[in-house]
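Standup notes
- DV: blocked on the single-chain target, sequence here:
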Amino acid sequence: MKSVKIQVKGIVQGVGFRPFVYKLASTNNLFGWVNNDDSGVNILLEGKVDSVNNFLEVLQNNPPVLSKIDSIDIKEKEKENFSSFEIYESKTNSNKSTIISPDIAICDDCIEDINDKNNFRYNYALTNCTNCGPRYSIIKTVPYDRKNTSMADFIMCEKCAKEYKNPLNRRYHAQPVSCEVCGPKIALYDNSNNELEKDLEAIKKLAQMINQGHIVALKGMGGFHIVCDATNDEAIKKLRSKKNRPTKPFAVMFKNINQVKENANLTQKEQEIISSKEKPITLVNSKSKLSKEIAPNIDRLGCFLAYTPLHIILFNYLKNPIIATSANLSGEPIVRFKDELIKKLGNVVDYVLDFNRDIVNACDDSVVQVVNDNIQVLRNARGYAPTSLKLEKKLAKNIIALGANQKSTISIAFEDNLILSPHIGDLNSITSLEYFIRTIKTFEDFYDFKADVIVCDKHPSYESTKWAKEQDIELVQIQHHYAHVLSTMAEYSLDEEVLAFSFDGTGFGDDGNIWGGEVFLANKKEYKRINHFKYFKLLGGEKSVKEPKRVALSLLFDIFTLEDVLEIENPTIKAFTKSEIKLMHTIWKKGLNSPLTSSVGRLFDSIASFSGIAQSQSYEGETGLQIEMAYDSSIKEFYAFSFEEDKIDLSECVKQIIEDNNTKLICSKFINMLVEIVIYLSQKYEKLPVILTGGVFQNKTLLELVCKRFDSVNRKYFYTKKIPLNDAGISIGQIYSQTQA
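- DV (later): unblocked, structure below
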């Protein structure tokens, strides 16, 4: 006989772990108990040695599908002679370290329940079980018990309570479990906040309004969506006009995977991800069968499936797929409350469908793409976040990292846990900053966390930097592009020297210039900038980000005289009047509001201008998507580049672009050139693993071409897959720099 005490840490609460343990113990004829506490799951087992060993083998190799075990600690103890196996009540102690589970899309069993006329949850729009439903978005603190969630005020009816208390039922201790008798209610409102309909009639009415071309708001799991018919050009144009969103693509929600296949060309991997338990927005190649207004000028479509019971029921009454975009003002976080939505977006939507279960923690939809037949997370949110990594050593101090200004996230580290928050957004408004501070408070409350060290960016104007400096806590500042490198090292637990290519749009450099085309030798402790793209001027500063023609013109001024520039036949020159070019040249010459940059993101902008694709852009990364669309894989040539000491000089490249004057040729040769630059520099440090990081490597074509070349010579390389390689991964990198102890 054997008696053991087991402690399991990780994502082990709210995922059906205790009923799983109960069944497994019963199957193996073992006695004892299981409970939750702030640290995880505790198990005491007594029984035959073989039975205990069988239990442990299954626990380690086949745990519940939604769980993520970080550690299992097993200690032998004296036998207490239990005569049964019981599930004990949760305990609270002073060491909160249970990892919060992300929200999970509705499971197939719950879909069956809401579609079954004989089931008491037929058409109940807030159905869930231990295998699906809200977690992060409804929890206030751990342990994950109903009293600690926004379900605390909903008293279970007899039927729900019976399921909740039965360890053999899949709703055993599913904290949001409810039905139409005892659970949250659905209601439809107009944009003056008048209640119109309730329950199923409210959903039917909303579907009718969408089918008729109205723009509506719909409460999701982690916030509201703005919704309209994805085949209705006029409705989408109206939405673009009201939201002041000229060309930025909208995500489209579909009823099922067959409906997605009708509108997009999917690989097997893309189909798996779209249908997965996370159900993220997945960027795929469009067949262009829906409205051309959804994603103007590009061939990508952001697809996702209905992921809540409310969505599933709504689609029973809809004619077409729907646009489902985050309900927020530009640059602000997703809206959680009906009254706030009507106040801010009442002029955009005609109707609002709400339910009275509060969203405690806002959580946007995740966005992913498939690269090299692997998932690459671009926006880390619903389904994936909070994201936890395990550190190899325990920390002596609690650390919080504040990320960047765009695509803000925070990370915390304590003991051997490193946790990345969901996407917060850009910190360009008071509302966004409030949400950023609220997210910090949320994670402090989850874990009774008090930071000993704050890590932030070096940019003096970042709101996160300003906030960090106001705190009376030890402060460490990490260079932006080095933090990008460290985020990749964190995902793969690298602790060695690497050769890193950190390419993005903008970041504060050590010399005060705007970096974005950097090559480093780096490790966890330090970095050395060994190459960078030769600086060029951003004419008009921030204006040049929205007007690629300014970047292209600046590159021409670097090479040609004003007289020669005026004679050039190119779309860039045609985008200006002669007097504008002369004025720009004066600004360029005097350096007025023209900061220096090495940004590869801005180089992409210049290519869009030179090639005639776009002289202005309305959202970040628009030119990159358009250039990628114009890429022709049959074109193998690349533009010339040279080195001026440690600087990558593109003077010859620009001269050749002017001669080519062909969109596909320019775009293809430019991307090919970037590949050649990476390969050329990598060959100089052939013993080092290579890191590819920064938002530029979200360009699927560029990343896949570089990886293909590295694979052909068996070169070891890394890029993040779980953690975004854009600025949303910065906080993880910042914190990883401090994990030496």
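- Follow-up: Residues 536-718 form a domain with the Nucleotidyltransferase; domain 5 fold (CATH 3.30.420.40).
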